[in-house]
């Protein structure tokens, strides 16, 4: 069974009296453990699609089935619960909480699902920070970290709760190529070790190189869907 | 414990803004504590002055006389009997009692005439009930059966009287005939009760009764009890035993005008508090909205991570509560310091009145000191905290209901 199934998904934004279609009938299935990259020009609908899959936005028509359940009719709180327990997000601008340390930023995600003892939580956070190479920077605040280090904290935060799906919206856009490589290696490793499903949206050819599946989107339609070994 | 930690950290982001908002709350609390302290001090001193110099703890009088007592009538007076005095003496908690006769007088110095209140007192018993003798600044109390009088130094000054002078007291008897008493001034007093200083003349009871053709009638008995509260409870013991139309009235009944005025003052104090805290609430609303705008991307991320709107509201409410708490503590400390200074130096009522003797209707003159109570501190602290939290609800809801996508891509 596909982890995510999109059926005739459409999204139309209303800008005053003008209807602007962002997605024009997307049909797609994403299996567990896939490392998928959605690419395409600016304004093609990549981010809109990612937001739909991430339960952050509602479609105008069509259906999204996540882990076998349709999410179209869910309330805001029910959607929040799906994000809380099943999804991880990585954004271009990191969006770390500046008053919390790297440890606390990662801990924050696991606190929301609150099923771990204090010791377990601490061990888990330190483990993932070590995995992303920030074990010795756990108690630094975001303003004491470089861009790459911040994105690694964001990756750790997205992965700490072992979500079924991680959505990354242009995660390397603010990073130099060397740092991008490091961050992508980490995500690749997590994908292989934990079988976490990743969906990226990007323009970055470096990211595309890592993808097992490439989905091209233009003008709100899928124009290419290619799996790679 | 994670959200409280986040709340505390968030408060540390803009210390100056938090401090200024908290300072407004602190100022509101300070103002309330000072006004409340002043009112409590005024209340305490007012009641003490009324009890010690005017009404005693309890009075027994004809109920019809009591209704008209401010007009100083010479009708519905009471004739002392052994039976009434036995009932008085049987009252639990009684320390002393005396008889008094209030009447209307025009005081004349040969040139000017001034309407004042005459009070016939029993020189033997009165000092056990009232503190008048303690406030004599020159001379002595009048002796029983004499035509000696005492008056406030201020009244004497106004009428150009000195000790040894004779004050002509023009009175109207119960039969509406005119009479005069040439009273020799033997003492001058200065009490903290302004109307006593300004407009009251004391004379031996028997002299007053004889001059007013009242026989041995008096206007009321005055009782001094062991404690103030006993003056209120003894009314319930005495009233069933007294024959109608006699009634017992506690110091609270005789001070009803003052109590009414104090209640109005209390409302005024609450209004002042409400106005200042409303300003503080605007500060809180402003702080929460600014915080939300500055942290829009974080809020979007929190929502993306699955935080419910309720939890985000709790963060902002927690921050507002934190500001309220800081402001509350600052306000209590400032208030405590203010009250300490107030109590150390006191406030001269004449200073408030620009050097005059205006007392804003309170039976108080001279220096007053503040009162305070734990309940008042707890109330204003809790109220400040409540207003802070209340003020944050709508901006917090506004922030929590932001579309997560718009929040994340805010810039």
Automatic annotation (TrEMBL), chain A:
Alphabetical list of SMART domains matching this protein: AAA (SM00382)
Top-level taxon of origin: Bacteria
GO cellular component, one term: membrane protein complex
CDD domains: ABC_MJ0796_LolCDE_FtsE (cd03255)
UniProt-recorded Gene Ontology molecular function terms: ATP binding; ATP hydrolysis activity; transmembrane transporter activity
Matching PANTHER family: CELL DIVISION ATP-BINDING PROTEIN FTSE, LIPOPROTEIN-RELEASING SYSTEM ATP-BINDING PROTEIN LOLD
Protein name: ABC transporter ATP-binding protein
Source organism phylogeny: Bacteria, Bacillati, Bacillota, Clostridia, Halanaerobiales
Automatic annotation (TrEMBL), chain B:
GO biological process entries: lipoprotein localization to outer membrane
Top-level taxon of the source organism: Bacteria
Listed Pfam families: FtsX, MacB_PCD
Compartments it resides in: Cell membrane
Membrane topology category: Multi-pass membrane protein
MacB-like periplasmic core domain boundaries: 19-229
GO cellular component, as recorded: plasma membrane protein complex
Residue spans crossing the bilayer: 20-42, 271-293, 314-342, 369-398
Chain ranges of the ABC3 transporter permease C-terminal domain: 271-403
Keyword terms: Cell membrane, Membrane, Transmembrane, Transmembrane helix
Family: Belongs to the ABC-4 integral membrane protein family. LolC/E subfamily.
PANTHER family, A to Z: LIPOPROTEIN-RELEASING SYSTEM TRANSMEMBRANE PROTEIN LOLE
Protein name as catalogued: FtsX-like permease family protein
């Amino acid at each position: 069974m596909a982890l995510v199934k999109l059926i005739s998904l459409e999204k139309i934004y209303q800008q005053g009296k003008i209807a602007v279609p962002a997605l024009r009938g997307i049909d797609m299935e994403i299996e567990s453990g896939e490392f998928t990259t959605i690419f395409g020009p600016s304004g093609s609908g990549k981010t809109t699609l990612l937001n739909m899959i991430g339960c952050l936005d509602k479609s105008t028509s069509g259906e999204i089935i996540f882990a076998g359940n349709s999410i179209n009719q869910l309330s805001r709180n029910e959607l929040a619960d799906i994000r809380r327990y099943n999804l991880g997000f990585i954004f271009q601008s990191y969006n770390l909480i500046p008053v919390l340390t790297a440890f606390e930023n990662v801990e924050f995600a696991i606190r929301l699902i609150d099923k771990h003892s204090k010791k377990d939580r601490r061990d888990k956070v330190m483990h993932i920070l070590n995995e992303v190479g920030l074990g010795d920077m756990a108690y630094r605040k975001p303003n004491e970290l470089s861009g790459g280090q911040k994105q690694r904290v964001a990756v750790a935060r997205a992965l700490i709760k072992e979500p079924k799906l991680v959505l990354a919206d242009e995660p390397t856009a603010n990073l130099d190529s060397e740092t991008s490589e490091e961050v992508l290696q980490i995500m690749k490793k997590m994908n292989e070790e934990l079988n976490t499903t990743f969906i990226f949206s990007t323009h970055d050819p470096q990211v595309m190189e890592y993808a097992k599946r490439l989905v091209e989107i233009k003008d709100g339609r899928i124009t290419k869907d290619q799996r790679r070994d | 414990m994670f959200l409280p930690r986040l709340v505390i950290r968030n408060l540390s982001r803009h210390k100056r803004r938090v401090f200024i908002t908290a300072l407004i709350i602190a100022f509101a609390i300070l103002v309330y504590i000072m006004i409340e302290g002043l009112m409590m001090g005024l209340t305490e001193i007012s009641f003490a002055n009324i009890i010690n110099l005017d009404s005693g703890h309890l009075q027994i009088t004809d109920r019809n006389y009591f209704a008209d007592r401010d007009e100083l009538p010479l009708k519905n007076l009471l004739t002392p009997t052994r039976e009434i005095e036995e009932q008085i003496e049987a009252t639990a908690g009684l320390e002393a009692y005396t008889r008094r006769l209030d009447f209307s007088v025009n005081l004349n110095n040969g040139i000017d005439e001034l309407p004042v209140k005459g009070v016939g007192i029993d020189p033997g018993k009165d000092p056990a009930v009232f503190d008048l003798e303690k406030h004599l600044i020159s001379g002595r109390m009048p002796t029983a059966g004499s035509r000696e009088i005492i008056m406030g130094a201020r009244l004497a000054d106004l009428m150009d009287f000195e000790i040894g002078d004779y004050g002509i007291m023009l009175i109207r008897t119960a039969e509406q005939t005119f009479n005069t008493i040439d009273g020799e001034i033997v003492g001058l007093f200065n009490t903290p009760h302004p109307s006593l200083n300004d407009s009251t003349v004391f004379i031996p009871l028997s002299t007053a009764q004889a001059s007013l053709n009242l026989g041995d009638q008096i206007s009321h008995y005055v009782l001094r009890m062991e404690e103030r509260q006993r003056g209120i409870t003894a009314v319930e013991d005495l009233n069933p035993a007294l024959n109608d139309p006699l009634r017992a009235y506690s110091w609270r009944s005789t001070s009803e005008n003052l109590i009414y005025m104090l209640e109005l003052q209390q409302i005024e104090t609450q209004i002042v508090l409400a106005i200042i805290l409303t300003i503080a609430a605007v500060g809180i609303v402003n702080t929460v909205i600014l915080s939300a705008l500055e942290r829009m991307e974080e809020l979007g991320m929190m929502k993306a991570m699955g935080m419910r709107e309720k939890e985000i509201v709790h963060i902002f409410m927690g921050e507002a509560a934190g500001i309220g708490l800081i402001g509350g503590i600052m306000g209590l400390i400032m208030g405590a310091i203010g009250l300490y200074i107030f109590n150390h130096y006191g406030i001269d009522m004449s200073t408030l009145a620009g050097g005059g003797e205006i007392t804003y209707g309170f039976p108080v003159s001279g220096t007053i000191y503040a009162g305070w109570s734990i309940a008042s501190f707890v109330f204003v602290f809790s109220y400040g905290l409540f207003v802070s939290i209340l003020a944050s609800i709508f901006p917090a809801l506004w922030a929590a209901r932001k579309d997560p996508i718009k929040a994340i891509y805010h810039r």
